[in-house]
């Protein structure tokens, strides 16, 4: 499988690129980033021995949901989507590693949601649209909260939103 070398600040792939391969980091560190409202959000770092771009391939998404940038010198092995999925099927230890890593991402996202909700509980309710105040930007990396359309602040953000998340079991709600 081909290897490719990147240098400090090089982009390995961009959000929106085809999700047609996975990269195994052979050496170095890669930042996973998103652009939101003109601001760069670092979602995490991928280290030597870990895979990059696997989520889009596992989920069968046509496009990447984030960008990847080299932190210093990086070397990656490029694995086609089909070869990667076959490797996961043949290698239980790789499957366990991926499950463990994705579980860590989920726990991190849950912790971030709880932290953001705790911060939100300290603000007065009904004081405007969360999206307009940038709260959604802080939630990047976590599953989005579904906001009930009953409290629409359309003149502020143009989308249904409210400070009160829809209760789970009422057609939306929580992150899971």
Summarize the structure.
This protein has 176 residues and is of the alpha+beta class. 31% of the residues lie in helices and 27% in strands.
Characterization of the model:
With 176 residues, the protein is of the alpha+beta class. The chain folds into two domains: 88 residues, Jelly Rolls; 85 residues. It has five helices and six strands. Helix 2 packs across helix 3. It starts with a strand and ends in a 19-residue tail after the last helix. The relative contact order is 0.15.
Overview features:
disordered C terminus; 176 residues; Jelly Rolls; globular; alpha+beta
- For the CA atoms, what is the radius of gyration? 19 Å
Number of helices: 5
Name of the CATH superfamily of the largest domain = Jelly Rolls
- Main beta sheet, described? 6 strands, antiparallel
Return the string of H and E elements. EEEEEHEHHHH
The CATH class designation of the largest domain is Mainly Beta
Computed structural class: alpha+beta
Compute the number of strand runs: 6
- Share of residues in strands: 25-35%
* End-to-end C-alpha gap: 36 Å
CATH names the topology of the largest domain as: Jelly Rolls
Helix content: 25-40%
Average pLDDT number: 75
State the domain count. 2
- What is the overall shape? globular
**Which architecture of the largest domain would the CATH scheme give at its second level?**
Sandwich
- Low-pLDDT sequence parts: 123-176
């Amino acid at each position: 499988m081909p290897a490719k070398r990147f240098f400090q600040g090089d982009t390995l792939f961009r959000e929106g690129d085809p999700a047609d391969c996975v990269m195994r980091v052979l050496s170095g560190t890669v930042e996973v980033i998103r652009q939101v409202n003109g601001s760069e959000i670092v979602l995490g770092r991928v280290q030597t021995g870990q895979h990059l771009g696997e989520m889009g391939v596992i989920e069968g998404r046509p496009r990447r949901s984030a960008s990847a940038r080299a932190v210093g010198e990086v070397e990656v092995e490029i694995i086609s989507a089909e070869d990667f999925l076959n490797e996961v099927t043949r290698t239980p230890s790789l499957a366990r590693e991926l499950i463990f890593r994705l579980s860590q991402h989920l726990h991190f996202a849950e912790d971030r949601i709880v932290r953001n909700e705790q911060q939100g509980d300290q603000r007065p309710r009904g004081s405007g649209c969360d999206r307009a105040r940038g709260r959604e930007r802080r939630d990047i990396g976590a599953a989005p909260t579904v906001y009930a359309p009953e409290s629409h602040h359309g003149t502020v953000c143009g989308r249904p939103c409210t400070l009160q998340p829809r209760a789970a079991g009422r057609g939306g709600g929580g992150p899971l």
